Amino acid sequence: MITLDRPCLENIIMPTQLIWFRQDLRIQDHSALWHATQQGQPCIAVVILSPEQWQIHHDASCKINFYLRQLKILQQHLLEKNIPLIVAQVNLWKNVANYMLQLTEQLGVTHVYANAEYAVHEKQRDDAVLKVLSQQGKKFQLFQDHTLFPAKSIRTQSNQPYKVFTPFKKVCFERLQYSIPKCYPDIETQQRITLQNDIRQVSIDDMLTQYPVSEYMLQQWPVGESIAHEKLYEFTQHQVKQYKNQRDLPAIHGTSRISAYLNIGIISARQCLQALFQPYHGEFVLSDKGIETWLSEILWREFYQHIMVDYPKVSKSKPFKDETARLAWRDAPHDFEKWAQGQTGIPIVDAGMRELKNTGWMHNRVRMICAMFLTKNLLIDWREGERWFMQHLIDGELAANNGGWQWSASTGTDSAPYFRIFNPVTQSERFDPEGTYIKQWVPELASLSAKQVHAPFEHKIGHIEYPKPIVDLKSSRVRAIDAFKNL
Ligand SMILES: Cc1cc2nc3c(=O)[nH]c(=O)nc-3n(C[C@H](O)[C@H](O)[C@H](O)COP(=O)(O)OP(=O)(O)OC[C@H]3O[C@@H](n4cnc5c(N)ncnc54)[C@H](O)[C@@H]3O)c2cc1C
């Protein structure tokens, strides 16, 4: 239970509202927070840190560090609104329901608010919490916040979920034309409350020491809602018009780089759309190809979230296309290691894999090239690549990562047809014509010309400390097509 901090009166005990923060570390435009604070009763907040669960989910150290740094800022912002944030540690989600029961009993909380999460483990955790709390007559209310449109609300005429992106996007466009989702108003500052001091808490700073990152990474990925909004504003007001032409060029800073902020909820998808259409006073105006293309990308994110709700198998490591479960992937740990370390001898692939290791991020075009190289040329199971990406991405997120991997492996919804295999050299020549991106991440190739740099193995050049390709691109392509044909 908590006490109202009023010096002249006796401490007054009141039933309280508890807001449970998860992948939504912000105070602006936050559904659960806004609803909780509208009830006229004091609110407190909790976040549960689960290191063993993060490990099971292969969350990258840099992503956890990013999360914890943002959590510190959130705690401060909540305090400015007089909402204390309890930072708890429950290592595994299977124990969260018990913890929530104890905590709500201890605080005298009758109503818990949170934003819904869609992956299988998250849903199991929330179902268990709902069960124990309702047995005690307490409410656990979930809000749709993570997506623009509620899960299961975008349906075909025969009321089925969409399996293909383009018609899904068409419906989204129609809805957006009608109305762009509005952001929630800012919350008011509540009366000051003091937490009783026997609540067990962990120190964010102590936990941060377990997830160290380089100074470079800290500079690349600053935290805070205002910083995320600056990035969003800079992109939507100044760069989005060039997005269509520049988005595929990894040497150029031509995309928004907001995925990490979106994924842990430092900003919301609603805020992205409001920023995008701000110059048009919030009207859905697609006057520009850049705006339309960026909006489509935001809707890819939406699509994969909806797919995860409708087809839970994708968050259980199952392929979307059932028949591809029979595919005879190669067991080739040596090749996998070369790929992971950026030592395949294919420059664009190595550049991407090294960018990932050094920055926690990789350009989207290069993600596709690297994923296709692993799953087609090396014929290695997409789940191995999916795991490696999660272990290293600062923006690692189950739905988008799984969607991207299954697209590349031709096992997923709306995925690349199995016979359309990217040639990494052609891709490299097309999207990094001068080799600028390659040379940034593979400095061994810095002295090569723009003609040589994409495939040094095809040119007569002097000795360089760079490996020969670990696989022949032509014959491995045929091998992959045969493997799919035989399904
Ligand atoms: C193999 C593979 C793995 C991927 N893993 C992830 C992941 O773990 N987490 C993640 O957020 N994205 C993932 N993506 C999608 C995409 O690469 C990133 O969202 C994008 O590169 C982030 O950079 P940005 O913020 O500058 O994007 P922008 O180009 O500025 O796009 C804006 C936003 O749209 C969304 N978006 C863009 N492209 C996609 C896409 N193809 N699928 C889903 N959402 C998209 C993201 O939220 C992104 O921040 C993956 C793609 C592939 C091919």
From TrEMBL:
Question: What does it catalyze?
Answer: cyclobutadipyrimidine (in DNA) = 2 pyrimidine residues (in DNA)
Family annotation (NCBIfam families): PRK10674.1
Coiled-coil ranges per UniProt: none
Enzyme class comes to lyase
Which cofactors does this gene product need?
(6R)-5,10-methylene-5,6,7,8-tetrahydrofolate; FAD
Which lineage do the record's taxonomy fields give for this organism?
Bacteria, Pseudomonadati, Pseudomonadota, Gammaproteobacteria, Moraxellales
According to its UniProt record, the EC number is 4.1.99.3
Could you tell me what the cofactor note in this record states?
Answer: Binds 1 FAD per subunit.
Where along this sequence does the record place binding of FAD? 243, 255-259, 294, 297-304
| Positions bearing the site annotation: Electron transfer via tryptophanyl radical | 329, 382, 405
Provide the alphabetized UniProt keywords.
Chromophore, FAD, Flavoprotein, Lyase
Q: Which PROSITE patterns match?
A: DNA_PHOTOLYASES_1_1, PHR_CRY_ALPHA_BETA
Organism for this UniProt entry:
Acinetobacter boissieri
Q: Which family does it belong to?
A: Belongs to the DNA photolyase class-1 family.
User: Origin, by domain of life?
Assistant: Bacteria
Q: Extract the SUPFAM superfamilies matched here.
A: Cryptochrome/photolyase FAD-binding domain, Cryptochrome/photolyase, N-terminal domain
Q: What is this protein called?
A: Deoxyribodipyrimidine photo-lyase
